[in-house]
Design brief:
The chain is mainly beta and about 250 residues long. About 15% of the residues lie in helices and about 50% in strands. Strands 2, 5, 6, 9, 10 and 11 form a six-stranded mixed beta sheet that branches. The relative contact order is 0.13.
Amino acid sequence: MKRFGMFVMSTAMIGILAGCGQDEEVPTEAVLPEPIEVELTVPEQGNVNEPVFITTHVTQGEENVDDASEVEYEIWEEGKKEDSIHVESTHDKDGIYSAENTFETDGMYHVQVHVTARGMHVMPKKQIQIGDASHQSDEHESAQDDQHHEHGDGVEGLSLHFMQPESAKAATDTVLMTHAQLDGKALKAQVRYEIISADKETTWVDTDEAKPGEYTANYQFPKAGSYQVIIHIENEEIHEHEEHTVEVK
């Protein structure tokens, strides 16, 4: 009888466990959010000392994105990325972000929008001709090509965006972040920061790829002053660098 009772109890327990297993939901793979889409509109031509209107339409699927945390335009003349300016946008409506810029000299210019929204970063780029750009000599164009190589604008389709620290303080962790894309897609590469102090002391800092194409590092600047931060990016096909200045208080 004891053996029979134990057999009945065991059978009942197996039935209960089987029933519980049927009630449990099978885990499914996490659904990734749809990527944001960024449509940059820049006129093909403009005139010197006349405002140029630039717009960006940000969407996610069928939805307009009106809560972007950053939509900023970076503008530079061909071959002079180190002298680029940043222009903040105004959010109009229906996912549209706009800005105006006035160009003071003839030439070919790059307009790149940096969009950060819903945990994603996209930075498409277009060109605009201002006035008469044909006056550039072959010698000047050659010099521009050299500058392209030095400042990360030499590889076609390569885009780098260094997130300038807003308030870097000495002896305090400062996040250094760079977004890298090639042809609009996150770039896989080795990214390091070369940090040079005013007295020419150099430190190399490795980065982690926190998200696809987003390379970050924490660094403590030893003292207040101006520091040169050079982004070095390298893989089997690319070896580029771009220079920035960080002011530390």
